Amino acid sequence: MTAVLSGTEVAAGIRTEVTAEAARLTAAGTPPRLAVVVATDDGSSASYVRSIARAAQRTGIACTVVDLGPDAAPEEIRAALAALSDDPAVHGIILQTPLPPDADFEDLAAAIDPAKDVDGANPLSLGRLAADLPSFPPATAEAVLVLLDAHGVPLAGARAVVVGRSNVVGKPVAQLLLARDATVTICHRHTKELADVTRTADVLVAAVGRPGLVTAEHVAEGVVVGDVGTNPTPDGGLVGDVDAASVTGRAGALTPVPGGVGPVTTALLLRHTVAAARASAGSA
Ligand code: NAD
């Protein structure tokens, strides 16, 4: 029996809390505002940004999309991020990917004020996370932990294996698991005998971007699997990195795609934005 660790209700609970806090802040004279900087004409990016803007507005957070177009120069993107960082009416800033080919994500994200860095993109935020100092973790990485916690998965002393080592997901998930006293192994594209490593996991997180990478041979009996992958299918759907049919019956639990990590990620971006607004109002 493989339990499905849904994110839908967890996300709804976070949005309810955010809605109350956004109303309180607005009444107190600090209406929370999120800004998303876009420099691409990628279709799936556009629909992701629309979904963030919709979710923000539904919870009472204003959302500004700064669309610089796919030909934006890196300096233009940096200037937009710096201007938003200086704008006291803006509390959260997201730099959307993909970026134009000559723009470097980490380099540009360094222009986001860490106090407004609601998706943990500034390398300073990642460094503070690694040093156990307060910062906003990347929302997707935190969403994995929030989902595991919501479903009561024990982490202290657990053997955790993270597949993927990107700055946006793999590394911060590993840091968050480490901060919760899990024993963490990170795998990546050069890892040899991947299945031998992943089979040692009590908790397995897949954050690669390759549909069907994790199959029954990669999982031990009873393992809890967090699937971060979001891979578009030709029919307009979405699948994760885990072959759900293959691991079902062997894994103890699995986060679904869609409906797992994704909705919790969006809800956390909103929670981070009201937290940033609260801090800016001096009532943290
Ligand atoms: P990335 O391309 O930056 O990193 C992929 C990582 O996977 C790399 O570290 C690479 O070494 C590793 N890798 C590649 N092939 C591998 C293999 N065969 N075996 C083991 N490791 C391998 O990707 P990313 O930005 O970290 O995103 C990963 C996935 O998570 C993507 O599907 C992305 O769409 C998804 N994602 C989802 C959300 C969400 O909100 N749900 C947010 C961000 C990313």
TrEMBL record:
Pathway: One-carbon metabolism; tetrahydrofolate interconversion. NADP(+) binds at residues 164-166, 230. The keyword NADP applies. Residues 138-279 form the Tetrahydrofolate dehydrogenase/cyclohydrolase NAD(P)-binding domain. Keywords: Amino-acid biosynthesis, Histidine biosynthesis, Hydrolase, Methionine biosynthesis, Multifunctional enzyme, NADP, One-carbon metabolism, Oxidoreductase, Purine biosynthesis. Pfam families: THF_DHG_CYH, THF_DHG_CYH_C. It comes from the Bacteria. InterPro entries: Aminoacid_DH-like_N_sf, NAD(P)-bd_dom_sf, THF_DH/CycHdrlase, THF_DH/CycHdrlase_cat_dom, THF_DH/CycHdrlase_NAD-bd_dom. Gene3D superfamilies: Leucine Dehydrogenase, chain A, domain 1, NAD(P)-binding Rossmann-like Domain. It catalyses: (6R)-5,10-methenyltetrahydrofolate + H2O = (6R)-10-formyltetrahydrofolate + H(+); (6R)-5,10-methylene-5,6,7,8-tetrahydrofolate + NADP(+) = (6R)-5,10-methenyltetrahydrofolate + NADPH. Its EC number is 1.5.1.5, 3.5.4.9. Residues 5-119 form the Tetrahydrofolate dehydrogenase/cyclohydrolase catalytic domain. Belongs to the tetrahydrofolate dehydrogenase/cyclohydrolase family. PANTHER family: C-1-TETRAHYDROFOLATE SYNTHASE, CYTOPLASMIC (PTHR48099:SF5), C-1-TETRAHYDROFOLATE SYNTHASE, CYTOPLASMIC-RELATED (PTHR48099). Catalyzes the oxidation of 5,10-methylenetetrahydrofolate to 5,10-methenyltetrahydrofolate and then the hydrolysis of 5,10-methenyltetrahydrofolate to 10-formyltetrahydrofolate. Homodimer. This is Bifunctional protein FolD.
